[in-house]
């Protein structure tokens, strides 16, 4: 299941991604918002991130004006590795190298077609593991307060 959400700045690209998910039979849960009226992005970003953190969703997709605010919120939630992506290369690499689990995009930065393309790449790219496993574990260690630097 994919958890998806947005604020007013990301509503246009969220709706385009939802159309893509529907067309491709990908299960999703929409956490809002549903109108272009101004809202506070932490409310929506937190709910999507929590669904990923709790294991309810495999991945999250959150959209705001830039993708930045929602990524800041999501990265405060345990187990979440949120990445702001504006191009196909970043969408692919953050799955392959960072094992990112929340894709953040900006409706004032990219158009609908680009958002759909990035979501498609993100959802269909696997983590490479190998040398990246250790680095992602370091992120988890920092999150859990037990990161030790061994020179
Ligand atoms: C809302 O105007 C805007 O601040 C928000 O969508 C987002 O870009 C924040 O990072």
SSE map:
Blueprint: E1 2-6, H1 11-23, E2 28-30, H2 41-53, E3 59-64, H3 68-74, E4 82-84, H4 88-96, E5 102-106, H5 112-123, H6 131-143
Parallel strand pairs: 1-2, 1-3, 3-5, 4-5
Helix pairs in contact: 1-5, 2-3, 4-5
Bound molecules: D-ribose (RB5).
D-ribose (RB5) is lined by residues 7, 9, 41, 64-66, 68-69.
Walk me through the structure:
With 151 residues, the chain is of the alpha/beta class. The protein has a single domain (2-143), classed as Sugar-phosphate isomerase, RpiB/LacA/LacB (Ribose 5-phosphate Isomerase B, Chain: A, 3-Layer(aba) Sandwich), CATH 3.40.1400.10. The chain is built from 6 helices and 5 strands; from the N terminus they run E-H-E-H-E-H-E-H-E-H-H. It has helices at residues 11-23, 41-53, 68-74, 88-96, 112-123, 131-143, and strands spanning 2-6, 28-30, 59-64, 82-84, 102-106. A 5-stranded parallel beta sheet has the order 2-1-3-5-4, sandwiched between helices. It starts with a strand and ends in an 8-residue tail after the last helix. The model has no long low-confidence stretch (mean pLDDT 98).
Reported by name, the CATH topology is Ribose 5-phosphate Isomerase B, Chain: A
Largest sheet: 5 strands, parallel
* CATH architecture classification name: 3-Layer(aba) Sandwich
CATH H-level name... which superfamily? Sugar-phosphate isomerase, RpiB/LacA/LacB
Number of strands: 5
What number of structural domains do the residues give? Answer: 1
The helix fraction, in percent, is: 40-55%
CATH class: Alpha Beta
Provide the gyration radius in Å.
Answer: 15 Å
